[in-house]
Automatic annotation (TrEMBL):
The lineage of its organism: Bacteria, Pseudomonadati, Pseudomonadota, Alphaproteobacteria, Hyphomicrobiales. InterPro entries: Fe-S_cluster_ET. One of its GO terms (molecular function) is metal ion binding. This is Ferredoxin. It comes from Mesorhizobium loti R88b. Gene3D superfamilies: 3.30.70.20. It comes from the Bacteria. The keyword Metal-binding applies. Keywords: Electron transport, Iron, Iron-sulfur, Metal-binding, Transport. The keyword Transport applies. SUPFAM superfamilies: 4Fe-4S ferredoxins. Pfam families: Fer4_15.
């Protein structure tokens, strides 16, 4: 899962950071740092909550990116002749 960061919408409320400070990094003025955020498997719930808490809708959750081309999809099938 990935969080798409729309920097221009950020108003520095820091609500995302309050939910998940290890996921959402802010600059010295309290605005989210630019760049999409790749979220580890175990942090997805926290990341979603943080993204939803943004009143400016500056954080967009993208659930489509990771699973499709992950290692499991690349494994050759076994047992086929
Ligand atoms: S909650 Fe939204 S507006 Fe506030 S710092 Fe995070 S991204 Fe920016």
């Amino acid at each position: 899962m990935r969080i798409i960061v729309h920097n221009a919408k950020c108003q520095g409320h820091a609500r995302c950071w309050a939910q998940a400070p290890d996921i959402f990094k802010l600059d010295d003025d309290g605005y989210i740092l630019p760049g999409d955020i790749q979220v580890a498997e175990g942090e997805q719930l926290l990341a979603s909550q943080g993204a939803r808490s943004c009143p400016e809708r500056a954080l967009e959750v993208d659930r489509t990116s990771a699973a499709r081309f992950g290692p499991a999809a690349m494994q050759p099938r076994t047992g086929e002749a």
